[in-house]
Specification:
By secondary structure, this protein is an alpha+beta fold. The protein contains one helix and ten strands, in the order ββαββββββββ.
Length: 214
């Protein structure tokens, strides 16, 4: 993220009005060439002599200050956004060991530092509601205390593996019944590298017709 830095702010260097003080400790009224006291045409109050006129307050100077405050505010907003982005980056680095800040997957098939866990197997026997032991075609890629998705063309649910055996997987009690051939997958996501998006994996049955050729 780049910061947009405005032109350098011009300081106005405001000055105080410094009055002349008479021997009696009072302000000295201004007089004209005839020795008459001069009065302010709007307030009707006497004008007084001064050593320094001071900086007058007017719309031009106030607008200049207003613009400076606004530019400073905009800069602070940009700084805050940049710091927030750095915090997120540091969080990603800290929570994903060896990640080096690369967490997002572009879903275009390019190599990055995260990979989709594609562990997948079939249930080789139909199971009923409440089943905890699943006989599967393969246990390769599955480990205990990880979550898997079980699905067929009717139901789907996420469960945690408790034990991985040589030809079976034990899970939490199933809430649904599943057909023979249902899938057990670490992820049921299918990545579409053409459209750079994730889709839901499909479970389907096929009808096979045998034809005798004479």
């Amino acid at each position: 993220m780049s910061l947009i830095v405005s032109n350098e702010y011009e300081l106005l260097y405001w000055k105080d009005r410094i009055w002349k003080i008479g021997p009696d400790g009072k302000l000295i009224p201004m007089t004209d060439e005839n020795g008459k006291i001069m009065y302010h045409p709007l307030t009707g109050q006497p004008e007084y002599e001064f050593l320094e006129d001071g900086t007058r307050v007017n719309a031009k100077r106030l607008n200049h200050m207003d613009e400076g405050i606004y530019l400073a505010h905009e800069f602070i907003v940009q700084i805050n956004a940049m710091i927030r982005r750095m915090q997120i980056q540091m969080e990603l680095d800290g929570r994903v060991p060896g990640n080096s800040g690369t967490f997002a997957d572009t879903l275009d098939g390019s190599t990055n530092k995260i990979t989709l866990d594609k562990a997948l197997t079939d249930i080789i026997e139909a199971v009923a509601i409440g089943t905890t032991t699943l006989k599967v075609a393969s246990v390769e890629g599955f480990t205990a205390f990880t979550q898997v998705t079980i699905f067929d063309d009717v139901h789907s649910e996420d469960v945690v593996i408790t034990v991985v055996g040589p030809d079976s997987i034990k899970v939490q009690a199933l809430k649904n019944a599943y057909k023979k051939g249902a899938k057990v997958a670490r992820s049921n996501v299918v990545i579409d590298t053409v459209n750079s998006e994730m889709g839901v994996g499909n479970w389907q049955t096929y009808k096979v017709e045998l034809v005798e050729v004479v």
